[in-house]
TrEMBL record:
The keyword Transmembrane does not apply. SUPFAM superfamilies: (Trans)glycosidases. GO terms for cellular component: beta-galactosidase complex. This is Beta-galactosidase. It comes from Trichococcus ilyis. One of its GO terms (molecular function) is beta-galactosidase activity. It comes from the Bacteria.
Amino acid sequence: MRIPYLKEANGKKVLSVHDKPFLVLAGEVHNSDSSSIEYMESAWEKAISLGMNSLLLPVTWENIEPEEGNFDFDLVDQLIEQARKYNKKIVFLWFGAWKNAQCYYAPAWVKKDVTRFKRAEVKKGHNFTNLEDFYGMPYTTLSYLCEETKKSDARAYKELMKHIKDFDGEENTVIMVQVENEPGLQGAARENSDHADEIFKSEVPQEFVAFMKSNSDSMAEDVKKAVNSGANEGNWTEVFGEVAEEVFSAYHVATYINSVASEGKKEYALPLIANCWLDKGQKPGLYPSGGPVSRMMEVWKFCAPEIDVIAPDIYVPNFMDVCDDYIKLNNPLFIPETVTHAYAGPRQLYVVGHYHALGYAPFGFEGMGEEFSAIDSYLFGVETADPLFEVPQDIQEYHWITKTLDDLSPLLLTKYGTTDLQAVSCERKDDDIMLFGEYGIKVMTESQMISRRDGVCLALKIAEDEFYLIANGCIIHPFSLSKEKPYSGILSLEEGSYEDGVWKAYRRLNGDEVAIMRYEKPTLLRMKLYSYN
């Protein structure tokens, strides 16, 4: 049996499948689509039209354990067989106790027994509330302090992983698993039951205090301040001050999820992901408090060592700022959910070229190419001041970008963790220069000579003077960095494709096409430079 795993390469983690590096160029289906094999047929076809090599698919607790102790994996098997038919990989999403901070996908026998499977008390004495700061949405969720829930959730997840190993351990159609979905508590920073109050007033485990005190450098400023000024021992308030309630929630949510993950890894040690609903600078409870947001990443690193990747779901305009937040503490970037508007393709190029990401997956990709409604735009954080955020992604261009990245991935992944792989984006137009030893490349994404405003360029150095470039909506200016030979020129420039490890030139460019290297549509180039004095 061969198990997909994460390996270190030049300080970056790379997913290995059958001992070969694999770049996850995926899409996540709408939550309910994977409950129907018939419905999934159109999703696989759409994935093909978008060039994707993988899909992120929910597997739900209610479906695999409809009665306690009786497991049904027929749907899981059918999804795996379907993926094989379409030559795709799967990242399964375990919807157990949490989905978007609620208990939507828990089985009926869990939902109905509120004595054995305790609900979180947002308000003391109440198993239900309406979220006043979230459109009055009705809200209930399972308690992160309930041992019975944790035990049952972990048992179900363990059985799932055992079955995947038995059914897929040789073929490795399933390459990663996300444990729960956007976990945490809405409506309050922590649970407010009598039981939660009692634990909150008790001594914080000393090992955890010591870890937080010695790892404060990477923390968000308010968390760092609270940790450094807090007591070295005592209850949660004494040790963590103003952030005590969120740290308390993060400690217990992460510990819960680590217990679930640990049981699964004992059976089948696939790489595991925990994803989060972004905090967006809000107070805990407006976003799920205790989830693996970047400000709580240190807590999660201590409490959930079985989780390999902490992954942000990004629906906000400041996409790259979020990416920056989730690469600290050697955390590899994986984006399991993001929007499908006009920046979806360019952002995929950028996260591979700049962040050396494990993977990227627009959510609800089945609708890519369709217009956003006003409600969709609002929920996804669309910035209406930028018209491109309201424009659907062109699906032919997305297919070209995804397939080109997939074809080039054997080369790209060998350069992870090095400066031989870089990228420039219009969303950071001031960072427009890439430096590669003897040469540099300046990329202009704003010019009267460019009609589009979603410019991006990925550059892959394959020799001291030779590069592959994926260019879109930009003008490229190579230049020399040598003091002895300060001038540079194009020795050769070809447009083409990279298929089955072989460069296929469509045409050799020269003259006007070299004088101004301007690209109004996604283009793959092979460029060789020379320098002189």
